[in-house]
Amino acid sequence: MHHNDLPDGLDLGKLVAVDTETMGLIVTRDRLCLAQLSAGDETCHLVKFAAGGYDAPNLKRLFADSSVVKLFHFARFDLAMIQRHLGVACQPAYCTKIASKLARTYTDRHSLRDLCRELLGVDLSKQQQSSDWGAAELSDEQLRYAASDVLYLHRLKATLDDMLEREGRRDLAQACFDFLPARAALDLAGWNDVDIFAH
Questions:
Q1: How far from 3 is each of 34, 35, 43, 145, 169, CA to CA, in Å?
Q2: How far is CA 184 from CA 53, 175, 178, 193, in A?
Q3: What is the DSSP string of 65-76?
Q4: pLDDT, tens digit, 9 for 90 and up, residues 20-70
Q5: Which residues does 85 contact at the CB level (< 8 Å), separation at least 6?
Q6: Staple partner for 110: which of 100, 124, 157, 185, CB 3.0–4.6 Å?
Q7: Can you list the pairs that 27-33 forms with residues at least 24 positions away whose Cβ atoms lie under 8 Å?
Q8: What are the distances in angstroms from CA 73 to CA 149, 157, 184?
Q9: Domain 2-188 annotated CATH 3.30.420.10
């Protein structure tokens, strides 16, 4: 399904997987087209945005709810897009890419596809990764691709949490997650390619 907002009274629990699809990867240029959400129950809710049509009070309420952890893969980008277009600081957040980089130091492969393949034995299709998400009607292939990006995040988080615990890096990961809204704000303010922690 896809709507311009989530249904009234929808309860997705305290951990919601979230992804976005955009017209491109430059947060200050490209627009938000789609938000995908899953409660980890193999159901995906899609919220489609027309250009400039970001009136989605139920979605904004969920993103702003501090009692619900929002679960992303590469949260930095999605948080910046949500902040810019929906005007919401989406937190608390958890990022499976950051968790992977801290836990899986034996590899430099941290894409969602790599994580699903290694940790879950699932082969994700990335065929629709570069497609027109601003189209008036999305194809079944696009909708399937968009859904697949959130359907495995709960299982990935559980596995990565175990690895972080084993390696003694849970607290470090949490500190990184807590910094994500500031990292997104830096991207939006023009510091996207600058490491402010460098000498």
A1: 10, 10, 15, 17, 39
A2: 22, 15, 11, 12
A3: -TTSEEEESSHH
A4: 999 999 999 999 999 999 999 999 999 999 998 899 999 999 999 999 999
A5: 31, 32, 49, 54
A6: 100
A7: 27/77, 27/80, 27/81, 27/84, 27/187, 27/188, 27/192, 28/84, 28/188, 28/190, 31/85, 31/134, 32/81, 32/82, 32/84, 32/85, 32/86, 33/133, 33/134
A8: 8, 10, 14
A9: yes
Instruction: State the pTM of this model.
Output: 0.95
174 burial via Cβ count (<10 Å: 0-12, 13-18, 19+): middle
The list of the chain residues with pLDDT below 50 reads none
How many other C-beta atoms can be found within 10 angstroms of the C-beta atom of residue 69?
17
Domains of the chain: which residue ranges? Answer: 2-188
Strands 2-3 and 32-38, how do they pair?
unpaired
